[in-house]
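note to self — DONT lose this again. spent like an hour looking for the file last time. sequence + predicted structure for the chain T wanted, 106 res
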Amino acid sequence: KDAPVVTASGKALSMDQVRKEIIAAGVAAGWQMAAPKPGEIVGTLNVRSHQAVVSIPYTAKSYSILYKDSSNLKYDEAAQTIHENYASWIQRLDGAIRSRLSVADN
């Protein structure tokens, strides 16, 4: 949540650049990415019979990866638990986003 947008050069990115890099990172990590409105991307990951859906609100300065929906992932809102693989999928997505943003300074 609220991860900073950081480039290797320290140069600030525009909202449009941040959107493009997040989408490219998600696609490269196997997610289906959609931008339903400015400042938000929705990512969907399908793995066998499992599906995870996240909302990625972003600005030129930060982004978050937030749980939106899932199927076959044993999500329990009251207990705040979900399938053990969910965390690794999110970490992989976040790593891909950080990597893309860090080199996006042109």
